[in-house]
Write a structure and sequence with these properties.
alpha/beta; five-stranded mixed β-sheet; 9 helices; about 15% strand
């Protein structure tokens, strides 16, 4: 039967997708209510293409970069590329696996190659884990969902399979719920082209190195973020996660290394709880940044007219917004961006709120803003818990 893309049919299609997302979110949250660390037992999996010329498919990855990713890039008809598979969970990353044929030439993935990867690479890698407690997730790509593939995965995971045609259905169009899409691929692609690799072997080495260097603490944060995404999708009635919110904050950097543990977390193998003696007025810098899925705007260093480092106040904050931040926004479509700031006194005078509303309209998340920012919420501010 032919499907005609009338407005009514599109509305019905979106409603079907939203229902699937809602059912999955409710199921996942019910599982977490029974087993609080359930989300840490899911192996999320996916493939990605890495082109040698650096071409990026923006449909299914986000790049955290200082440069504007919206750049026109000419690509040949058949650019050289690698097709890479990984599985990510709270306990680490399995992979990368590079799809190659019998002559070791790089190839794309199909059903036979995917099953060969599962049989010869993935299942042997699971020997070091308690498979009886792990779940496996894959999206609904055709190469994943052949009957032979589903049966192969059920032989290992039983009913703990989240997939199209699996015991638990994975909702379509849900890359915002896949840590490899909302974190891993964008993060890796932002680093592997830094030295401009000229061969696929060089690019493959870079991918292996970057993935091997990802710290367990970072993966734990990524998986914890997954539960926040469930909350958002349920509260917003299956809407997709907004990847276009600026989240900003300032931080002090003391010359003697003093750390204010109230609003930062140190990701380190060493114990950061060390007593540090400091002078009464240690030298420091006050730094501002804005962070979003498309990159980081900043850093901006607060200085007076003589070029001396100073702390932030209302006048200096408005000057920064006017003379630095707003001009930097010229590279972005401001009509789609939201802006978030905490409730610090220097952020919230009426003149500052009016200045921000002139740029962002009702898309302002702030104390005294259109959408209120909750106090004492540094645990949901990426600049506090990460940057």
């Amino acid at each position: 039967m032919n499907f005609f893309y009338s407005k009514d049919n599109l509305v019905a299609l979106h409603f079907k997708y939203d229902q699937a997302r809602r059912r999955f979110v409710e199921w996942a949250q019910n599982e977490i209510a029974v087993v609080p660390d359930f989300h840490k037992r899911i192996l999320f999996s996916d493939e990605a293409h890495f082109w040698l010329n650096g071409y990026v498919n923006k449909q299914n990855c986000r790049i955290w970069s200082e440069a504007n990713p919206q750049v026109y890039v000419e690509t040949p008809l058949h650019p050289e590329k690698l097709t890479v598979w990984c599985a990510l969970w709270a306990g680490g990353i399995i992979g990368p696996y590079f799809f190659k044929n019998d002559e070791c030439h790089n190839v794309t993935v199909n059903g036979d190659r995917y099953r060969a990867m599962i049989t010869n690479f993935f299942i042997p890698e699971l020997n070091s884990h308690d498979v009886h407690e792990l779940w496996f997730q894959q999206d609904g790509a055709t190469c994943h969902t052949a009957l032979a593939t589903i049966d192969l995965l059920k032989d290992t995971f039983g009913d703990r399979l989240i997939s199209r045609f699996g015991p638990v259905n994975w909702p379509p169009r849900s890359c915002d719920l896949t840590p490899l899409d909302y974190f891993l691929w964008g993060y890796v692609k932002s680093l592997v082209y830094a030295d401009k690799p000229e061969t696929l072997d060089h690019l493959e080495d870079n991918i292996r190195r970057v993935i091997a260097d990802i710290r367990p603490q970072m993966l734990e944060k990524v998986i914890e973020n997954w539960t926040s995404r469930l909350d958002y999708i349920r509260a917003s009635r299956s809407s997709h996660m907004p990847e276009i919110i600026f989240k900003i904050d300032e931080a002090h950097f003391w010359l003697n290394g003093y750390v204010n543990k109230q609003n930062c977390r140190i990701w380190s193998e060493a114990n950061p709880q060390v007593c540090v003696e400091k002078p009464l007025h240690p030298e420091k810098m006050t730094v501002w940044c804005a962070l979003w899925a498309g990159g980081i705007i900043g850093p901006y260093f607060f200085k007076n007219d003589e070029g001396h480092n100073v702390t932030v106040n209302g006048d200096r904050y408005r000057a920064m917004i006017t003379n630095f931040f707003i001009p930097e926004l010229n590279n972005h479509d401001v009509q789609e961006l939201w802006f978030r700031q905490d409730g610090a006194t220097c952020h919230t005078p009426r003149a500052t709120i009016d200045l921000l509303k002139n740029t962002f309209g009702d898309r302002l998340i702030s104390r005294f803003g259109t959408v209120n920012w909750p106090p004492r919420s540094c645990d949901i501010t990426p600049l506090d818990y990460s940057l």
